[in-house]
C-alpha cells in the first residue's frame, strides 16, 4: 500500500471503459482509431463525497496480471462499476441472441484486478456490471438478458422497484429490510458463485446484492451513484470505512 497515516483519504481505484476517437463527440477524424479511456463521473463523485480519493485505472498498460498487481499495491480499495455485457465465454455459456456488445479487454483487466484484490484481501465494491463480474470471477453464471426488469424510460435516479434484504447481512445493516432502487441493467446473476451469498432480492426474484463469506467484497445490482440521495448512499461509506479500518489495522501492526 501507499505510505500513509490514519488521516489521509483512502485511495479507491475505479475501473473504466475503452472507447475510441470516433466515439467521442468533437473528436477530429484523424483520431478516429485512437484509444480513449472513459469513466462515468458519478462514481468518482460518490467516492469523494464518502471520504475517499478516487483514481481512474487506465487500460492496456502491459500484462494484465502484472498491471493489476501494481494497481492493488497503490490503492486501498477498488470500485468495479457498470458497463457493457460480460462475455459468456468467461462462464462457459453460449451467447444469447440478445447479448449486447462485449468488451474482452475490460473483461481481462477486471478479472486480473479481482485476482490481485483477492490475494491481498482488498475491499471491493461492485456495481451493476461490477457485481456480475465479481460473481463470474468466482465461478458464478449470469442471465444474459433481462428485458422486463430494467427501466430506461425515465431519469436514471428514479426508483422503479423494491429490494428486500436478508437478515444478518451487510446489506441489511446498510439498507435496513427494504429499499427502493433504480434499475438500469441488461444482465443479472443466475447461479451465485461459491464463497458468496445473495443478500438482496427484487420482487421478481432478481438477485440485487451479494457479499463474500470471508473477503470484504460487496456488490449491488442497481446504480446507487445515480440515485438522488447519492450523498447518503451507504455503499460508498461502507467501502471507505472498510478500507480505513483495514489500513489502521496494518498501521497498528507495523507500530508494534
Structure description:
This protein is α/β, with parallel strands linked by helices. It has a single domain (11-255), classed as Rossmann fold. The chain contains six helices and 13 strands. Helix 3 links the parallel strand 5 and strand 6 (124-127).
Topology readout:
Layout: E1 11-14, E2 17-20, E3 35-38, H1 41-49, E4 53-56, H2 64-74, E5 77-80, H3 104-120, E6 124-127, H4 129-137, E7 142-143, E8 161-165, H5 170-175, E9 178-181, E10 188-189, E11 196-202, E12 207-212, E13 217-220, H6 234-255
Parallel strand pairs: 1-4, 1-5, 5-6, 6-13
Antiparallel strand pairs: 2-3, 7-10, 8-9, 8-11, 11-12, 12-13
CATH fold field value = Rossmann fold
**What is the helix content?**
25-40%
**Order of SSEs:** EEEHEHEHEHEEHEEEEEH
Task: Count every beta strand, where a strand is a DSSP E run of 2 or more residues.
Answer: 13
CATH architecture: 3-Layer(aba) Sandwich
Terminal CA distance:
18 Å
How can the largest sheet be summarized? 9 strands, mixed
> Main sheet: which strands, in order across?
4-1-5-6-13-12-11-8-9
Integer average pLDDT: 90
**How many H/I helices?**
6
Radius of gyration: 18 Å
- Structure class: alpha/beta
Query: Which residue ranges are poorly predicted, with pLDDT under 50 across at least 5 consecutive positions?
Result: none
Residue share in β-strands:
15-25%
Can you tell me the CATH superfamily? Class I glutamine amidotransferase (GATase) domain
Count of the domains: 1
Based on CA inertia axes, which overall geometry fits? globular
What's the CATH class label?
Answer: Alpha Beta
